[in-house]
Every structure is written in structure tokens, then in C-alpha cells.
């Protein structure tokens, strides 16, 4: 029995050594990550984009193993939310929409700090540039491309500013004429404002009147021949049709129109207005383009004249209407087979301008001109323009004489 036990133990030891010789040490198995934390505290400028790789993220699983957290495995719903806080200090990153394998990441901290402007340097033309007086109100922009504006920060870095990132006290400088007037440049971004009010000088020069410009107040307005004329224009005052502005040496045209005065003279072209004999008033003349000449004098200076075209559109007939004249022979009845007396039919034309006018009997024909045989009661007749057969009046009823 003792020999049997020794044999069994010997075989167990033998197989034990054999097992050791054919095996490798077990690798520690990685379980579910339960905790994620940062190994560094990165620094950012306020408002700067945050990169999660800067935090050196690692995790710890449920078996106590420390594992790397690949940034590419982190799900970020909206990367635009990963920005440093707008104020300086130690901050906690907002990770509301950030997960790793379904797990929320929390408690990542970083330091936010601001760069502060330390100095401002301006360089530009070696000689003072000329600006017209009041140019800030004349749609002339400051010549910012001629200047280089550089801000230096407290960490030693520098940045060239674009116009808008710095301001220029321009309006108050160009409010009066003068040479070598200082412009004040001030930083608008980057912490403490810095100012340069000694480097740049400009000359502010006079901006005298050199002429006038004239244009129609309403270029789309239609003026018809035969329409009632503008009463002021007839008397030589076109300011209800035409605006006249002063033009300055800088090229700027003033926005307030001149009023009629002895200094502002309009010359009326022949044929623009004619007398309406029927009404004894003025109407616009034949269709065409009429150039109104404008002259302006200021002080002892008479500026070059300008002209503005007044276009007159032909006043065409829009429609016609017919009626039997009251008390006429036609009104009492026309016999069947008889010719209708055109003089007994009043035909009125309405023009595009809205003017209405009775037409001469030679301007239209009747359709039909003769009452047909056998007609009785009333018979409908229309007026048709001689010059335009498509222009037809509504029917007018002619009584048939018994």
C-alpha cells in the first residue's frame, strides 16, 4: 500500500512539472472601465477650442487595471461646445454631451487665462495723408489699408489687428480744417485697451462746392402728353420733378436738395408745355424727351450747367364709350333701313392719363351704319375708331321708329 501511494505522488509531481513547462503566465484580463480621469491639467486661452487629447485620459476597470482611453473612441455629440470658459481661472469642462463606450466622463479641469494687451504700435505713410473736412459723414472710409496696427501681449506675443479690432478717433479730427492733426488708435480686443495718439498725423483740407447734380425725383413716373402740367414747372420751378444737389471737390454729393431761388435757375425747353385751348390751362406737349437745363450760382461762382431729361409719353386712347345725344333725331327713333346720323352719337375717349375727351364724328364709324330692314324695338350699334379698328365701344341701343 505504501508503495502504491509513493507511485501516485510521483506521477502527480511528474505531471505537475510537465504542466509548468508547457504554459505561459496569464495576462491580466481587462474588465469594464468604471472610472476615467485626467493625468494633466491643460491651459487654454479664454474662448479657445479644447482638445480632449490634452488631458492625458486614462481609465480604471473593475479589476483595478489602469488602461489608456483612446480619444478617437470618445463620442462628442457637439464639438462646438468644447471651448474654454470666457473668464480666467480653474474651470470644470462641460462634458454633458461626451461619452466613452456609453459611460459619462466627468470632472475634467483646466486652467483658463487671458492675454492682456501690453502695447500698441502703429505704422503708416511717412507723410501726413489728406482727408476732406467732414469726410466721416461723406461715405468715405478711413484708409485703414495704409496703416499697420500691431498689439503686443503680456506673454510677449504680437498680433497684427484688422480694422474693427482697433478703433480710430476719426470723426472729431476731420470736423475742421487743419494740418498734422493727431489720430488716436485704440485696441478694441485683447484685454486692457492700449492707445497710440502720437504716431499718425493727417491733414484735414477744405471740401468746396465744384458743381451740381440733377436727377428726376421719380424716374419711373409716367408723364403723358395732354395731361395737366405741373403748375410750378410751368412757372420755372422744377423742384417737384427734379432734385438738384451740390457736388463737392471730394466727389461727395450732398443729400439735401436745393430749393428754388434766384441762385437756382431752370430753363424750360420749347414744346414741353402747351396751352389747352378747351380748358385754357397748360398741359404737357407732344411725346418726346425734353432737356431741362439747370444753372446754379453760389456767391460769385457760377457752376457748370447740367441738364436732366423730362420724358413725355404719348397719351394713347385706352377705351371709348358711345351714347345717343339727348334731344337728337336719333333719340326719337331711326327707321329700319335708314342711315344713322353720326352727329347724333356722342363718342368719348378715355386716355391712359385719365383725361376724357369727346371725339369728332370723323374719328369713328358706326357698326352697323344703317339700321337693318325689318328691325324693330331697339337695335344695338357700336362705335369703332377709324385709326384703330380694335378699339370698339360697348353697344348703344338705337330706338327703331315705328
Class from secondary-structure proportions = mainly beta
State the helicity in percent bands.
under 10%
Question: What's the Cα radius of gyration?
Answer: 48 Å
Bulk shape: elongated
Strand segment count:
32
Characterize the main sheet: 4 strands, mixed
Q: Averaging pLDDT over every residue, what do you get?
A: 88
Low-confidence stretches: 1-28
Distance between the termini: 163 Å
> Strand order within the widest sheet?
20-26-25-22
Number of helix segments?
Answer: 3
β-sheet strand percentage:
35-45%
Write up what this structure looks like:
This protein has 402 residues and is mostly beta strands. Helix content is 7%, strand content 40%. The chain is built from 3 helices and 32 strands. It has helices at 2-21, 231-234, 329-332; strands spanning 33-38, 43-45, 57-61, 66-68, 74-76, 89-92, 98-100, 103-104, 109-113, 117-123, 129-132, 148-153, 158-161, 166-168, 178-182, 185-187, 195-196, 201-205, 209-216, 223-224, 242-248, 264-267, 273-276, 281-284, 288-298, 301-313, 317-324, 345-351, 356-358, 364-367, 378-385, 396-399. The strands form 11 sheets. The protein has a 4-stranded mixed sheet with strand order 20-26-25-22, with no helix packed on it. Strands 1-3-4 form a 3-stranded antiparallel sheet, with no helix packed on it. The longest helix has 20 residues, at 2-21. The termini are far apart.
Amino acid at each position: 500500500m505504501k508503495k502504491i501511494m509513493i507511485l501516485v505522488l510521483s506521477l502527480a509531481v511528474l505531471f505537475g512539472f510537465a504542466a509548468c513547462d508547457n504554459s505561459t503566465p496569464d495576462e491580466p484580463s481587462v474588465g469594464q472601465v468604471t472610472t476615467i480621469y485626467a493625468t494633466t491639467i491643460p491651459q487654454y486661452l479664454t474662448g479657445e477650442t479644447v482638445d480632449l487629447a490634452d488631458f492625458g485620459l486614462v481609465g480604471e476597470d473593475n479589476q483595478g487595471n489602469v488602461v489608456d482611453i483612446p480619444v478617437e473612441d470618445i463620442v462628442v455629440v457637439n464639438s462646438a461646445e468644447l471651448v474654454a470658459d470666457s473668464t480666467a481661472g480653474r474651470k470644470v469642462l462641460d462634458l454633458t454631451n461626451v461619452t466613452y463606450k456609453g459611460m459619462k466622463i466627468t470632472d475634467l479641469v483646466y486652467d483658463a487665462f487671458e492675454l492682456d494687451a501690453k502695447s500698441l504700435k502703429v505704422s503708416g505713410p511717412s507723410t501726413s495723408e489728406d482727408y476732406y473736412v467732414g469726410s466721416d459723414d461723406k461715405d468715405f472710409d478711413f484708409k485703414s489699408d495704409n496703416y499697420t496696427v500691431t498689439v503686443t501681449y503680456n506673454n510677449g506675443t504680437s498680433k497684427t489687428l484688422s480694422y474693427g479690432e482697433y478703433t480710430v478717433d476719426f470723426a472729431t479730427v476731420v470736423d475742421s480744417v487743419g494740418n498734422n492733426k493727431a489720430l488716436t488708435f485704440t485696441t478694441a480686443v485683447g484685454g486692457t485697451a492700449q492707445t497710440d495718439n502720437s504716431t499718425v498725423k493727417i491733414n484735414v483740407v477744405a471740401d468746396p462746392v465744384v458743381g451740381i447734380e440733377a436727377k428726376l425725383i421719380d424716374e419711373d413716373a409716367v408723364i403723358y402728353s395732354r395731361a395737366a402740367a405741373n403748375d410750378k414747372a410751368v412757372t420755372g420751378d422744377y423742384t417737384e420733378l427734379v432734385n438738384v444737389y451740390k457736388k463737392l471737390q471730394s466727389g461727395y454729393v450732398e443729400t439735401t436738395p436745393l430749393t428754388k431761388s434766384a441762385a437756382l435757375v431752370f430753363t424750360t425747353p420749347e414744346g414741353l408745355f402747351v396751352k389747352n385751348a378747351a380748358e385754357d390751362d397748360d398741359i404737357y406737349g407732344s411725346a418726346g424727351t425734353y432737356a431741362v437745363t439747370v444753372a446754379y450760382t453760389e456767391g460769385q461762382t457760377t457752376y457748370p450747367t447740367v441738364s436732366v431729361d423730362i420724358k413725355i409719353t404719348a397719351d394713347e386712347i385706352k377705351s371709348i364709350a358711345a351714347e345717343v345725344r339727348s334731344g337728337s333725331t336719333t333719340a326719337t327713333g331711326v327707321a329700319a333701313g335708314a342711315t344713322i346720323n353720326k352727329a347724333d352719337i356722342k363718342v368719348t375717349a378715355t386716355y391712359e392719363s385719365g383725361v376724357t375727351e369727346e371725339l369728332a364724328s370723323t374719328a369713328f364709324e358706326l357698326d352697323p351704319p344703317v339700321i337693318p330692314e325689318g328691325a324693330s324695338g331697339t337695335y344695338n350699334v357700336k362705335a369703332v375708331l377709324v385709326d384703330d379698328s380694335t378699339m370698339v365701344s360697348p353697344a348703344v341701343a338705337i330706338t327703331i321708329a315705328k
